[in-house]
Design brief:
This protein is mostly beta strands. Helix content is 0%, strand content 59%.
Length: 99
């Protein structure tokens, strides 16, 4: 029996990099900080300190440490939110558009 990670169609790269997450919902539009734990061509796993609702649209920006590589920016949708421990939530986001 295959585990969930074995069923993925896209390679996931471990990143562990700081990200800035802009919540694009007009009622709650704000910015929070997080950590991108892993990244694939279709999604990301983000660690944040508060829960976010399924379906919320986000704009995510991740700076790079190499000046020749531009920052990653993407529009994404929350598809999973699980509490890891107090004040720590793991988000699964689906990339809608990469900029």
């Amino acid at each position: 029996m295959l585990g969930q990670n074995d069923k993925r169609n896209y390679f996931r790269m471990m990143v562990n990099s700081q990200v800035q997450i802009m919540i694009t919902d007009p009622e709650t539009g704000r910015v929070i900080d997080g950590i991108c734990r892993d990244l694939s061509s279709t999604g990301m796993s983000l660690e944040v300190d508060e829960p976010l609702e399924m379906g919320i649209l986000l704009f995510i920006k991740m700076e790079t440490h190499n000046p020749s590589i531009p920052p990653l920016s993407a529009h994404a949708k929350v598809v999973r939110c699980a509490q890891e421990h107090e004040d720590c939530y793991q988000l699964g986001v689906q990339i809608v558009e990469m900029n």
